[in-house]
Design a protein that fits this description.
alpha+beta; elongated; three-stranded antiparallel β-sheet
Length: 79
C-alpha cells in the first residue's frame, strides 16, 4: 500500500506569509499522522524555507513509496 494511503501530511505555518516572505524567526510545523490511529508518527519544527522544502520532499515520497519504506527512510531523518 502506498504511504499516502497510510499517512497524512499536515503542515502548519506560524504566520500568514508564504515561506519566501516569512519572518526569519518564524517556525513552521510538519507532522506525519497515521490515518488509522490518528497518532503523530513524525514531527519537525523548521524555519519557513526549510519547512517548505521538507514538505515538498515528503509529499513526493508519500506518493512513491509504500508505507514501510517511507517510515524506514524518514524515521532516521534529522529532526
Amino acid at each position: 500500500m502506498k504511504a499516502n494511503r497510510a499517512y497524512r501530511l499536515i503542515v502548519t505555518r506560524a504566520g500568514r506569509a508564504p515561506a519566501l516572505f516569512a519572518d526569519a524567526e518564524r517556525v513552521d510545523h510538519i507532522e506525519v499522522v497515521e490515518i488509522d490511529g490518528g497518532e503523530v508518527v513524525l514531527f519537525w519544527d523548521r524555519p519557513p524555507h526549510a519547512a517548505s522544502k521538507l514538505a515538498r520532499a515528503l509529499r513526493e515520497e508519500l506518493s512513491q513509496l509504500d508505507g514501510d519504506e517511507f517510515m524506514a527512510r524518514w524515521s532516521a531523518a534529522e529532526r
